[in-house]
Amino acid sequence: MPASLTLEQIKEYSHKWLTGTITDEEKKALEHWYNLQPPDIVAWGAGGTEATLREQIFDRITGNIRDMRHLPVAGRNKKQNLRLLAAASVVLFITAASLFFFNNREQSIKTITASRVPESSSARAVSYTRSVTLPDSSIVVLRANSTLDYPAKFADGKREVRLTGEAYFDIRHDESKPFIVYSGEIKTVVLGTAFNIKAYTDSKDVTVSVMRGKVRVEKATKEIAVLIPDQQVTCNTSAMAAVTVPSHVNAASIITDWAKQDMVFEDLSFQTTANLLSRRYAVMIDFKNAALAQCTIRAFFNGTETLDKVLKDLCLISNATYTRTDDGKIVIDGEGCRNH
Predict the structure, then answer these.
(1) CB of 234 closer than 8 Å to CB of 225
(2) What is the pLDDT along the chain (340 residues), one digit of tens a residue?
């Protein structure tokens, strides 16, 4: 095992940990690198929370950067300049790597959040959707500002997750293991189906819409409704005495209205398209043939497709192919297009 990791490896392994795609070998390398770091950078006090830990690490690293910036450029040696550049580049990734050990110590539950920069932030406000593959290979499209909690491995005959916000679920069929989504006090039980749940904390309503299959909606031990395709039910959690009646809807349009965000590629470069896909599907995408990155992409997706489906279509129209490396990276290659 190498004594240290390069800057690019720290970025890559930290990204993989954050997205749940890190391998055992990469995990060991990240642990080894972490153990070599100065104690004042990576140590945390007993009983600290994740938020406290993140703040402490950030303050320590950025403090070191500020201290070094006070030195005149002529007064810095080559090593100090390198440290300044490295510290500025990897501050977030060191934080992520440190949180990796904090989370391993405290819990085994993964939390995936599609986040939005607050409108009041000085940074450009962003909003994007994530595609998450669960331990049983079920697919979840998680809307911006929504959170999904799930175990690293489904066990004991259970497949249970907890949703805050909105998500589309395409669940792998398994009669022996019902799939359960908890949304506040509402429980949605399925065997294998495709459906949408909207359950925001600032609303007392939980809405379940079914695209395919059948789901049962419950609160505690009370059955609220059994839904079939193109049926929807909205449950007011503060007024369960009221009769809740399913309504007929176009479930596909309800889902794609939000899921297709960032999946409409109109006159974008292949590189820009790949960047959007990398963020959505939490995967690294590289071009072996640099000319391909400049190809113009005109393609439209509903947002519930798998990454493989999207890449096959994009490569078909761009005279390209793609492969996956052993570490999960996507590499796109081919003769390329003639439209740029």
Answers:
(1) no
(2) 454 677 777 777 776 665 667 787 777 777 666 656 544 444 434 344 444 444 444 444 444 444 444 445 445 454 444 444 444 444 445 555 444 444 443 344 555 655 443 332 222 223 578 888 898 999 999 988 888 888 888 887 889 999 989 999 999 988 888 999 999 889 999 977 999 999 988 888 899 999 999 999 998 778 889 999 999 999 887 765 455 678 888 888 888 788 888 899 999 999 999 999 998 998 999 999 988 999 999 999 999 999 999 999 999 999 899 999 998 899 999 987 765 4
Structure tokens at 110: 């993964």
Residue 186: C-alpha distances to residues 114, 132, 134, 181 (Å): 22, 22, 21, 8
Whole-model pTM: value is 0.61
Domains of the chain, earliest start first: 7-107 (no CATH), 130-257 (2.60.120.1440), 262-333 (3.55.50.30)
Measured in whole angstroms, the distance separating CA 310 from the mean position of its chain's CA atoms is 17
CB atoms within 10 A of CB 106: 12
Q: And the tokens for 274? A: 């790949």
Q: Are 273 and 307 in contact (CB under 8 A)?
A: no
Q: Supply φ then ψ for residue 190, to 5 degrees.
A: -140, 165
Residue type for position 255 = I
Alpha-carbon span 99 to 42, nearest angstrom: 10
